[in-house]
Amino acid sequence: MAETCDILVSGGGVAGLTAAATFGAAGFKVICVDPTPPVTLRDADGSDLRTTAFLQPAQALLARFGLWDRLSDHAAPLQIMRIVDAGGEQPEPRVVKDFNAADISDKPFGWNLPNWLLRREILARIESLPNVEFRPGIGTKSLFTRTTAARVTLSDGAQIQAKLVVACDGRDSPMRQAAGIGVKTTRYGQKALAFAVTHPVPHDNVSTEIHRSGGPFTLVPLPDYQGKPSSALVWMERGPRADALQKMEVTAFEAEMTRRSCGLFGDLTLASRRSIWPIISQSAERMDGQRLALMAEAAHVVPPIGAQGLNMSLGDLRVLLELAEARPEGLGDAQMLSAYHKARHNEILLRVKGIDLLNRSSMIEARPLRDLRAMGLNALYSLAPVRRTLMQMGLGVK
Ligand SMILES: Cc1cc2nc3c(=O)[nH]c(=O)nc-3n(C[C@H](O)[C@H](O)[C@H](O)COP(=O)(O)OP(=O)(O)OC[C@H]3O[C@@H](n4cnc5c(N)ncnc54)[C@H](O)[C@@H]3O)c2cc1C
Question: Which atom of ligand 1 lies closest to the CA of 296?
Answer without folding.
Answer: 26
